[in-house]
Amino acid sequence: MLETTPRVAVIPGRRTALIALAASVFSVAALTFAPAVHAQDKTSIKVGIMAGEEEDTWVAVKEQAATNGLTVETVIFNDYTQPNEALARGEIDANAFQHEPYLENQIATQGYKIVVAGYTALWPVGLYSKKHKSLEELPDGAVIGVPNDPSNEGRALRVLEDAGLIKLREGAGILATVADVDENPKKLEIKELDAGIVGRAIDDLDGAVVNTDWALKSGLTADIQIARETIENNPYRNFIAVRAEDKDAPWVKKLVASYQNEAVKEAFDRIYKGSGVSAY
């Protein structure tokens, strides 16, 4: 039968004190020199993503992460303001839902110390038309709808500028508005509408600049898209974001590699059917 009470040798006098002192010094030394567990040692992380098709994409990312020795748990959000707040608070380790103009605005207004870890995909904004099959067919005075929120309106106007339909004033930046249109040779009537309405109003417009998410919800398809923003150096590419303190951690490199590979690209293409493109 095993004893449940350990036997303690009693050492009298000064020797007891010396041994106790030595033990305490050893304990302090052990605490001082014990290896600390930092974020870079992580083998299991939480990543915030938005509800919807991204959940399917990240199933493939999780599979790739497992082969890299990293366990990924996805945390699903329905509000775009939540993932950065959760990341800043340490409730998640990374997120993947935003582009740089959005993050820059969040940093300016909220003071977040969040950085880009690696790019993921782009959902190109397009100019759609049910009445005209090409840019050349757009008549003078055509009515074009654009979203009226600051980030998306500037992006939509860039699509029109890249298509040669308008020219924005120098220095207009990514938050350009209709007031920044410097040249409008076709005398387009640019209507600012709510982002959720502009795609659905296309029957009453000659064309509408709509982001991918709202295009899908509005039933707009690639076959009626007559212009599209380019991918190269596009500030609206989405990315994996982490806290600045973690940017060089080994697990971050593993996470990015788990997204940026052919297996995930194939899954992404299958899920988004051309409405989004890999952009890394």
Q: What do these coordinates show?
A:
- It comes from Aquamicrobium defluvii.
- This is Lipoprotein.
- Residues 1-39 form the signal peptide.
- It is found in: Membrane.
- By secondary structure, the chain is of the alpha/beta class.
- It folds into two domains: 41-123 and 235-278, D-Maltodextrin-Binding Protein, domain 2 (3-Layer(aba) Sandwich); 126-228, 3-Layer(aba) Sandwich (D-Maltodextrin-Binding Protein, domain 2), CATH 3.40.190.
- 35% of the residues lie in helices and 21% in strands.
- The protein is built from nine helices and 14 strands.
- The strands form four sheets. It has a five-stranded mixed beta sheet with strand order 2-1-3-13-4, sandwiched between helices. A five-stranded mixed beta sheet has the order 10-7-11-6-12.
- Helix 2 crosses helix 8 and helix 2 (53-67) packs antiparallel against helix 9 (262-272).
- It is elongated, with a radius of gyration of 27 Å.
- Mean pLDDT is 87; it is low at 1-39.
Summarize the structure.
With 280 residues, the chain is an alpha/beta fold.
Our estimate of the beta-strand percent is 15-25%
Strand order across the biggest sheet?
2-1-3-13-4
Measure the end-to-end span. Answer: 65 Å
Calculate Rg over CA atoms.
Answer: 27 Å
Q: Identify the overall geometry.
A: elongated
CATH topology of the largest domain: D-Maltodextrin-Binding Protein, domain 2
* Count of helical regions: 9
Low-confidence regions: 1-39
What is the N-to-C order of secondary-structure elements (H for helix, E for strand)? HEHEHEHEEEEHEEEHEHEEHHE
Question: How many strands?
Answer: 14
CATH superfamily of the largest domain: Periplasmic binding protein-like II
Counting structural domains, the number is 2
Major β-sheet, in short?
5 strands, mixed
CATH architecture of the largest domain: 3-Layer(aba) Sandwich
| Helix percent band | 25-40%
Look at the helices and sheets and give the structural class. alpha/beta
What's the pLDDT, averaged over the residues? 87
CATH class of the largest domain: Alpha Beta
Signal peptide: 1-39
Membrane topology: Lipid-anchor
GO molecular function, one term: dioxygenase activity
Organism: Aquamicrobium defluvii
